[in-house]
Amino acid sequence: MSYEQGPIRPPSEAESLFVRVTRNCPWNKCLFCPAYKRKKFSRRPVDEIKADILEMKKEVDKVKSYLSKFNGADGFPREALELIYRQEPELLQIALWLFRGGKNVFLQDGDNLNMPAEKLAEVLTFLREQFPTVERITTYARSKTACRRSVSELKMLKDAGLTRVHIGLESGHDPLLKYMDKGVTAEEHVEGGLKIKEAGLSLSEYVLLGLGGRAMWKGHALDTAKVLSRIDPHYIRIRTLAIREGIPLYEQYQAGEFEPLDDDGLALEEKLLFENLSGSSYVVSDHMLNLLEEVQGSLAHDKPFMLGVMDSYLSMTEEKRANFSLGRRMGIYRYLRDMNDMGLFNQVEGVRKRLRDEGKDIAQFLTEYKGRYV
Ligand code: SF4
């Protein structure tokens, strides 16, 4: 590949084109974060980013020359994709992007508002010039950094083409933010989020279920609800904590200092959060680590439905909850209703009973199993 790519992107940007603007995260201290493995943060020079964009443009033109061989076919025929894969596999990423519409771009890495606003605006303008049909350009940013930007700087970025900012809010509970070394306070989360909205940008806030563990789950749920209700972002995206070796929090987990919530605890925490949440945000549960993927919809209209999903899980018998957790974590179930498929249900029951007969603690098994996904 003749242009640089970063390691991560939000699930909702899986089909976007990735343009790396900075490298890694300027904070890089959060105890739960697997993202950049303590690599050093740097801002890429604007000329270097522009050179990458021009390389991408060249690849777009090459892909389009393949498409011209399929005259008369509508859009981007699958046969063209297969031909590119056989003849120039290095074009596949760009080809797939165009195949999926070629409308969205995600700027990597973890905190691009850290770049001087004029420079980021220059990148955005150049990107829009090279790809005039792009409709959405998004980025990750930290609330703390958004606080340091003036609304007029954020407006400048919007005018240059930025559409949406994804923020890892994680929690609105100050003792937990401090414990996890998130480097931001609840008040700064609110200030940063409101500034982004005031600038006319779309705002997406990520919540990390389970972050409070057994010690702080109530404070995490209640204060996160408070902070999100004050910000009222366009999107609230749900994620769930997973712990594995290599993440700083793993040490606290091993020492017994941080006790993770089991799936029943996660559902109770999510319920407390939603009972206290208000506003007009659209809730998205787009991560495979979330226990209840069907918790999704408009907070203004679908809150009873979303709370109903949590109640459906919590009102099942202990055996059925264990069956669902296991099936969900092993990728056998996606939704609660999948348990009605007796073939799937019995498959999971077989595993559950075997673990029980072997004397395994299912909650611990699931905690460690989840770590495979981060
Ligand atoms: S600010 Fe975000 S990317 Fe940076 S260390 Fe924390 S969670 Fe990871």
Instruction: Describe the global form.
Output: globular
Count of runs of 4 or more consecutive helical residues: 15
The fraction of residues in strands falls at 5-15%
Which small-molecule ligands are present, each listed once? iron/sulfur cluster
What are the low-pLDDT stretches, counting only 5+ consecutive residues below 50?
none
Distance between the ends: 25 Å
Q: What class, by secondary structure content?
A: alpha/beta
- Helices and strands, in N-to-C order? EEEHHHEHEHHEHHEHEHHEEHHHH
Number-wise, the strands total 10
CATH architecture of the largest domain: Alpha-Beta Barrel
The level-1 CATH class of the largest domain: Alpha Beta
3D structure, described in words:
The protein is of the alpha/beta class and 374 residues long. The chain has three domains: 6-102, no CATH class; 142-315, TIM Barrel (Alpha-Beta Barrel); 321-374, no CATH class. It has helices at residues 46-67, 78-87, 92-99, 117-130, 143-148, 151-160, 174-179, 186-198, 213-231, 249-254, 263-275, 299-314, 318-329, 342-357, 362-370, and strands at residues 17-20, 22-23, 42-43, 104-108, 136-141, 164-170, 202-209, 235-240, 282-284, 297-298. The strands form two sheets. An eight-stranded mixed β-sheet has the order 1-4-5-6-7-8-9-10. Strands 2-3 form a two-stranded antiparallel ribbon. The protein starts with 16 loop residues before the first strand and ends with a helix. The mean pLDDT is 94. Bound molecules: iron/sulfur cluster. Residues 25, 27-30, 33, 35, 110, 142, 168 line the site of iron/sulfur cluster.
